Amino acid sequence: MLTFTLRRISLFIFTMLVLTLLSFSLSFLFPGDTVINHSGQINATVSELAQLNQAYQMDKSIVNQYGAYLTHILNGDFGQSMASQSPISKEIIELLPATIELSLVALLIAMIVGIPLGFIAAIKHNKTSDHVILSLAMLGYSIPVFWLGLLAILVFSIGLGWLPSAGKISLLFEIEFVTGIQFIDILLSDSPYKWQAFSNASAHIILPACVIALAPATIFIRLSRAAMIEVLAASYIRAARAKGLSFQQIIFRHAIRNALIKIIRHVGLQFANLVTIAMVTEVIFSWPGIGRWLIESIYQRDYTAIQGGLLVLSCFIFIIHILTDFIYAALNPLARGNKYGS
Amino acid sequence: MNLLDIRNLSIELDTPNGKILAVDRVSLSMKEGEIRGLVGESGSGKSLLAQAIIGVLDDKWRVHADRFHWRGIDLLRLTIDERRTLLCRDIAMIFQEPMSCLDPTTLIGAQLSEAIDTSQLSGYFWQRNKQRKEAVIKLLHKVGIKKHSQCISSYPHQLTEAICQRVMIAIALAGRPLLLIADEPTAAMESTNQGQIFRLLANLNQLKNMAILLISHDLEKITHWTNTITVMYSGQFVEAGTTEQIFNQPMHPYTRALVDSSTKANLQLPAKSRLMTLPGSIPILQHLPIGCRLGPRCPRAQQTCVSAPKVSNFHGHKVSCHFPILRETVKKEPVKHKPVKGTD
Fold it and tell me: Does the ipTM surpass 0.85?
């Protein structure tokens, strides 16, 4: 298990190094002065520029420049936003938790809905319910997310008035910023209206999270259906039937666990896709997350923000990847390596 | 009374190109405490037959039988669920490739303990867990695994094939079966392990009077352990009789060829000479010959072989062939029939 952990960590470090190399090279490729792209200080005076050149070691070789850039990043200094002239790290700390919250809730919904539906389809293989679930999955996968988001607002917010259409929480509630993840902040706060705030925040997150979850959920349906069909045809299921176990026992004790192993790695892969969908959805639902901020920075040609956002988002996706790898290892004894030896 | 009595069992497969008769009217009967060998080439429907008996075939296979009795109970009259509960209690099955027949993500101990029926345990529910554990250890000892604690806390991939097969046998024994169906239990195992598994099965047969249906493609390997043998070819019944009858006086040309192709029966053959084999190979399911399916490969085939032969019984030695090899009776029978024909 230690080797397994060390391997993941080394993979993480090297991937992040390659990503910093990419964002470093972006400063050269974007229009404008490299050091200004690095730091984002567009209104710097001559003396400040000299200071920045000193800090980023612009007079030395490119390797030194990269080293200096890396030191800045590791110290949490992503430079200033070109648009708002405030430190990017501060903006990211404020915005990233909202995106984490939204995408994790969406992932949860997608898994809770998608995986059991896929299992049901596999168990009822080639029957009506299987066909219905598969066609629904096909339909859900084909709907573009921006259109679905607008449609959801039109129906549920404007038409039926069930759910709010924009924002993270109603402006009436004042929640102190601690972790940035709304639900945890609400639970930590000692406001008398804590539970009202909690239900309000839940109402706000349902619509965008469901919109994000739709496409991944349909993918999970198909993945889990294929995995379950494969598992149910395996010889250990036949042996379990010969053992005299009932169908429920076989499904719950043997089939689900083995099918989940096949799915869980794909969950990590799908998460990158899910974050992309979340960025678009954040714009539609005015969710104050890093996706909306990144899209706005692209509009405003805020190169420093693009670099910082890119690094932080990919880091987040990578961490989720590693987490799914750990869950995979926890579920699958074959991935853990020979502990006992035979 | 016969333990198991099957008459004319057929298994069909529905395909887009019509129905395929994978197993064609095979009869099989087993007495209590006997070891019966079921022999045939790969693809002759032995495993299908075994799986049909225990009822674990997929939905795509259709099983018909004229008679299917288990200890005098007509199983064809029972519903599928009743049949399954009855058979799963009394019949157990072990498969080839035991490692793939154990759930790779569940500990051996858990897989063993779920095979133990709650009705076997006495005592209150808080005592059950302990009793279950003790029963698991006892089962492992029965199949000759001494390091039970290590085995219980292992996953299947951490054990060898032979140990996995022992665990499978232990799981099969958990239900205290009257009949154990062993579907090529020693395929892909070394000969020492094969011997151990066969000895274990023979022990169980003698100590617990458990009947065993031993399925194998290797006639020579199982003759040492079996009382009676049934031979199948391409889904058709070929010949059945005691081991001596089959091995010493095969009546069907196919059994003859099987015996001839084994080295043990041909010790008098000169060194480096070729063994007797039938030309060709077993037909695939999509292109089955009509009548006797051995027809195209059979050295004794004649025109009548295009219709399926009926089973004829020679003192308990059943053979399904139009032209059986009859060594002693070869001279007697024509003498008997000739005067009858002449008077006509």
Answer: no
